[in-house]
Amino acid sequence: MFKTKFIATISLLIFFLTFTSLIKNKTRILEKKIINLNLKILAKQNDTNEAQLDFYYLTSPAEIEKKLNIINYENYSPISYSKIYLNISDFTKIQNKISTNQNSDEKKTKTK
């Protein structure tokens, strides 16, 4: 009776020791992956912040005026308002209209 309780206790102890070590190793691997992903996220955020800063600097009126002075006003032609798209859906709608018009023109020329 004493031997079976002792063997059961030792086997249960060994099982829990191996089980906890396996879980601990898996959690350490997950923590390393999380840390690496957080570092990548921080790097991407820094890149976007730098890109925003560059954009704000390059599109400031003073910088645009400097660039216009460099290239002379004669070479400058402003974009008409109709070519400025407020969002991507407007752009894709117009592109689809243009492509369908071109396709219909191609069909007309082929049938003639």
How would you describe what is shown here?
The protein has 112 residues and is mainly α. The chain has a domain of 33 residues. Helix content is 82%, strand content 0%. It is built from 3 helices and no strands. The mean pLDDT is 81.
Q: Can you give the helix content as a percent range?
A: over 70%
* Cα-based radius of gyration, to the nearest Å: 34 Å
* Proportion of strand residues: under 5%
Distance between the termini: 103 Å
Question: What general form does the structure show?
Answer: elongated
Mean pLDDT: 81
Q: Which spans have pLDDT < 50 for at least 5 consecutive residues? A: none
Multimeric state of these chains? single chain
Number of strands: 0
Class from helix and strand fractions: mainly alpha
Instruction: Give the SSE string.
Output: HHH
Major pleated sheet? none
The number of helical segments is 3
For this entry, give a set of tags.
single chain, 112 residues, mainly alpha, 82% helix
Brief characterization of the structure:
The protein is mostly helical. Helix content is about 80%, strand content about 0%.
Task: Furnish the topology, listing elements before pairings.
Layout: H1 2-58, H2 61-71, H3 88-111
